[in-house]
Write a structure and sequence with these properties.
With 325 residues, the chain is α/β, with parallel strands linked by helices. The protein folds into two domains: 6-142 and 293-323, Medium-chain alcohol dehydrogenases, catalytic domain (Quinone Oxidoreductase, Chain A, domain 1, Alpha-Beta Complex); 144-269, NAD(P)-binding Rossmann-like Domain (Rossmann fold). Helices cover 24% and strands 27% of the residues. It has helices spanning 59-65, 136-139, 143-156, 173-184, 198-203, 217-220, 233-239, 257-260, 276-287, 304-312; strands spanning 18-24, 33-39, 47-57, 84-91, 103-106, 119-123, 127-129, 164-167, 188-193, 208-211, 224-229, 243-251, 266-269, 295-300, 319-323. The strands form three sheets. Strands 3, 4, 5, 6, 7, 14 and 15 form a seven-stranded mixed sheet that branches. Strand 11, helix 7 and strand 12 form a beta-alpha-beta unit. Helix 3 crosses helix 4. The longest helix has 14 residues, at 143-156. It is globular, with a radius of gyration of 20 Å.
Length: 325
């Protein structure tokens, strides 16, 4: 039995039964992922307990597993996985907007135990009712990636009608949502991707698709209003040259401030902060058949190692899902 994380246990340690979960006892390769018994989390008054249907696998999962983005409140051992779909099993005394049996999705707080488990505790303000148009396990691929795309484009980048936006990494989990959301907003969408995904990205509404394996995007683009960067490095540095003066570079992987300081553009990195109201708007787009959820592979919970290896390969298109129920 694993040692409990104090932040997850607001009541007596022995007051809850056991569940199956994937736990990390030490930082390292995917070999550190252990499928084992863990304590079912207790909930606080403003939280719900979700019986997990599926968990989305994201790059942040294996980056945290390797020891990056350490959080002092996240103590070993812990359960990863910060994308979830499932059914509410229990509600806290302060929760009135949701009830037992509601089918929901959420992006749980990454400083807490996550969703690679049969149950997860989530603050009610992070919940949205799950979309009805797609299977519940596929809906686990929405919360983190779609909200990251939404916040980056609209809340940070101010993308709107007639805005020109260059989206790097268009075939990744965040990029696929970004292309669709920008097009829904009326933007002129330019996207970079690899050869095999050109047709897919074009089918999602991109006005211009650039195959980065055969083309230099700086030679194809004049000046754009916004660059939405999920790649970083040299791609980010070269992107500064294709922005209008006063343009905006918004990155999910941080910004090289030394390079950006010598330009006439705004360059900003951000970490998405989840909220249920935004997530509800995204769900509405899914249910109206305006936003597609594209999944690459599915694995059972006990094969979390294989799921991490697939994600870390960098060759996946869309989301990877861990099926729990």
């Amino acid at each position: 039995m694993i040692e409990e994380i104090e932040v997850e246990e607001p009541v007596e340690k022995d007051s809850r039964g056991l569940m199956k979960a994937v736990c990390i006892h030490e930082y390292g390769s995917s070999d550190v992922l252990r499928y084992e018994d863990a304590r079912i989390p207790a909930i606080r008054p403003d939280e719900v307990l979700i019986k997990v249907c599926a968990a989305g696998v994201n790059p942040v999962d294996w980056k945290i597993r390797e020891g990056y983005r350490k959080d002092p409140s996240r103590k070993l051992p812990f359960i990863p996985g910060w994308d979830v779909s499932g059914t509410i099993e229990e509600t806290g005394t302060l929760v009135s907007a949701f009830k037992k049996g509601d089918v929901v999705i959420a992006r749980p707080d990454s400083s807490r135990n996550g969703a690679y488990a049969e149950f997860v505790a989530v603050p009610a303000f992070e919940l949205a009712v799950a979309p009805s148009r797609i299977p519940l396990h596929e809906a686990a691929g929405i919360p983190l990636a779609a909200q990251t795309a939404w916040e980056g484009l609209f809340e940070q980048g101010h993308v709107g009608r007639d805005t020109s936006v260059l989206i790097h990494g268009a075939s990744g989990g965040v990029g696929l949502f970004a292309v669709q959301l920008a097009k829904i907003a009326g933007a002129y969408v330019i996207a970079t991707t690899s050869t095999k995904n050109v047709d897919l990205i074009r089918s999602l509404g991109a006005d211009v698709v650039i195959d980065y394996k055969t083309e230099d995007f700086t030679k194809r683009i004049d000046k754009v209003d916004v660059v939405f960067d999920t790649i970083g490095g040299e791609t980010q540095a070269r992107s500064l040259d294709v922005l209008h003066h006063g343009g905006r570079l918004i990155s999910t992987v941080g910004v090289n401030e030394n390079i950006a300081a010598n330009t006439l553009v705004t360059a900003k990195g951000f970490v998405m902060i989840s909220n249920g109201a935004r997530l509800t708007e995204i769900v509405e787009l899914v249910d109206r058949n305006m936003l597609r959820v594209i999944t690459e592979k599915e694995f059972p919970l006990q094969e979390a190692k294989a799921a991490h290896d697939a994600s870390q390969s960098g060759h996946t298109v869309g989301k990877i899902i861990l099926r729990v129920q």
